[in-house]
Amino acid sequence: MDVQNIHANNGDKGSAPNINETPAPEMVQAMLENSLLNGEVSTQTHETIAKQLNDPQVSSRRLDDGPRPVNVGALAGLILGSPEFQRR
């Protein structure tokens, strides 16, 4: 995932992106929901996927790790498996 695109899509046009900064998993989730589902995701699906952000396979974290980049592939898989995407 391109960090510059994350900042641009977040409306952060006034400052240069910090390429060393790891985007928040919630931000990555929102971007994927917008790009894969055109933002048409139910509250229940959004909250269910948000709960999965703490799953080690999605968060790429171990018990004592600090913040790490989200596993974009796993998160995209959750969104592609959602009822909203399956109805398309």
Describe the model.
The structure is a single chain. This protein is an all-alpha fold and 88 residues long. It has one domain. The protein contains 6 helices and no strands. The radius of gyration is 13 Å and the shape is elongated.
Q: Which characteristics define this entry?
A:
88 residues; mainly alpha; 53% helix; 0% strand; elongated
Rg from Cα: 13 Å
The structural domain count equals 1
Alpha carbon gap, first and last residue: 24 Å
Structural class: mainly alpha
SSE sequence, one letter per element: HHHHHH
Mean pLDDT, to the nearest integer, reads 77
Tell me the major beta sheet: none
What percentage of amino acids are in beta strands? under 5%
The geometry reads as elongated
Number of helices: 6
What are the low-pLDDT stretches, counting only 5+ consecutive residues below 50?
none
